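Revision sheet: structure tokens.
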Amino acid sequence: MQFGIDRFLADPSLRKPLEGKRVALCAHPASVTADLVHSLDALAALDDITLAAAFGPQHGIKGDKQDNMVESDDFIDPVHNIPVFSLYGEVRRPTAAMMEPWDVLLVDLQDLGCRIYTFITTLLYLLEAAAKHGKQVIVLDRPNPAGRPVEGTTLVPGYESFVGAGPMPMRHGLTLGEMGHWFVKHFDLDVDYSVIAMEGYAIEGAPGFGWPTERLWINPSPNAPNVNMARAYAGTVMLEGATLSEGRGTTRPLELFGAPDIEARAVIRTMHELAPHWLEGCVLRETWFEPTFHKHVGQLCHGVHIHAEGKFYDHEVFKPWRLQALGFKAIRTIFPGYHLWRGEEFKYEYTEGHLAIDVINGGPALREWVDDRQATAADLDALATPDERAWREERSSSLLY
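Predicted:
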């Protein structure tokens, strides 16, 4: 199969409309060809492409910013001598000055298929700016490693943020190119937008179920080390709004959760008692870890490792959002007074007025379900299932594969 970048490089007819135009690229470390050449270098090597600028999303075009909410600066690329503009620095939306040096923007970003992963919001902001300034945007499409499944409640009005670009559930089941089509339609953007689609991409095909296993995995952000993380992320990302560690400062971030003062065996046992059907398609393993930075740094944590991989993975039934909600629920059941949620003083993605967990989920419903001692798994299903059904229908006209 071929990713969008590989097709663009191999087929001169795809590049011909760009002749005589100034081209910019939005990229990160996973923006590589099948031969692991970075897209910026590959494009610069073409005689018929005039590279004029580049953009870096959150974590920087080099992927060097380890934690969330760590900003990157603009700089001049030392190899290609073009400006590289940061879309996670002084601004999140491109300024008029950033839009001036180019005519056509190529977006080549590996996404994770989760609403909170900020690359889709960056795409929206670029599309809105392109509409305003009369620029063209082309997404060089890449796989969604989480595949087509949909999960989570829809973001509610008033909770829009850099991790909540629009009314969609946590796990949206679109590629970045497909998401761009949905943005253009939903926000009624008058913009010249197109996608260089992948060729031979079977989005639900085994054994990758979204990720083609013949391609190497390159971290799109520092704490996205493998496909197991990408599958679990639509659930484990919620830990960023909790006091529990999500494994930052370990070698398996966002695949596990824990803290020094929980008993992981009891948590796993309680999860199985409360909603065993939400734990299908993976296996939970007791683990111990000591973060070298971030929450609970230097403290021995007892935790739960989610393995949605190998013989344990069932793509059709794995439910990461419900699984992590259940982990919270189990801790609340075992330790009713546990200080589970980070307070409003922690302004997640600089958002005022909401708890971080609510910003992440796009509303308070999940937190309220966890904290309601009487609420059952069926109650959360009743909240999420109609939203999931509606989104499957909403997204259908944007599907390319």
